Amino acid sequence: MHRIMRERFDEQSNSVRENLMSNHIGFKACFLFATMVVAASLLSQEQTEKKIAASALPPAVRKAAAEQSKGATVLGYSKETEKGKTYYELEMKRDGLSEKILMDSTGAVTEIEKEVPTGSLAPAVREGLQKAAGEGKIVKVESLSKHGALVAYEAQVRKGSKTSEVQVGPDGGTLAHEE
What does the pLDDT look like over 55-77, one tens digit per residue? Predict the structure, then answer.
């Protein structure tokens, strides 16, 4: 009797063990698949950037870049894809300060990042950036304008061997979201 009960118990245990193993493998497969779908989705939305020659710019962008770079030293051009839209970036130096201009394929300026001397910032902006930087050292500040309007100031911050970025609004206040 004990032998029969033991055999039934062993059969049931094996059945339960097999179910658990198959469910565990199924869970792992589902989790791996979901992870791959999320990663692919994020990669498809991710911004891509590729250096290009001036000759590769669309005519409207080449014309706008020539106008925007008057009096500056052009450092290069890049083609960017962000959320399925193509943009072109002009990188240059003007009066020793860096400047990046982002244009759409028609040559319309969508964003400008200009290096700003820290000493020329309004006290509230300087204080806001330093507060956001914490104990880090501000090594570079840029103004960020979108569609002709100043939307933020961005600072590169160095703490030890690490570099990060912080942003504040045009008045030095905290932004609701990163620009």
Answer: 999 999 999 999 999 999 999 99
Instruction: Give dist(CA 156, CA 162) in Å, integer.
Output: 10
The CA distance from 172 to 116, in Å, is 14
Distance CA 101, CA 81 (A): 15
- What pLDDT digit, counting tens, does each position of 28-55 carry? 544 445 444 444 444 444 568 899 999 9
**DSSP-H helix ranges across 108-172:** 123-133
| Residue type, position 109, single letter | V
The token pair at 83 is 């959320």
Cα 167 from Cα 126, distance rounded (Å)? 11
Question: The tokens of 80 are what?
Answer: 């960017």
- Bridge partner list, 100: 91, 113
Confidence of residue 179 (pLDDT cuts 50, 70, 90): confident
Question: Residues 100, 88: contact at Cβ < 8 Å?
Answer: no
Closest CA to 118 of 94, 97, 141: 141
Q: Quote the radius of gyration of the chain (alpha carbons, Å).
A: 28
β-bridge partners, 164: 157
pTM for the whole structure? 0.71
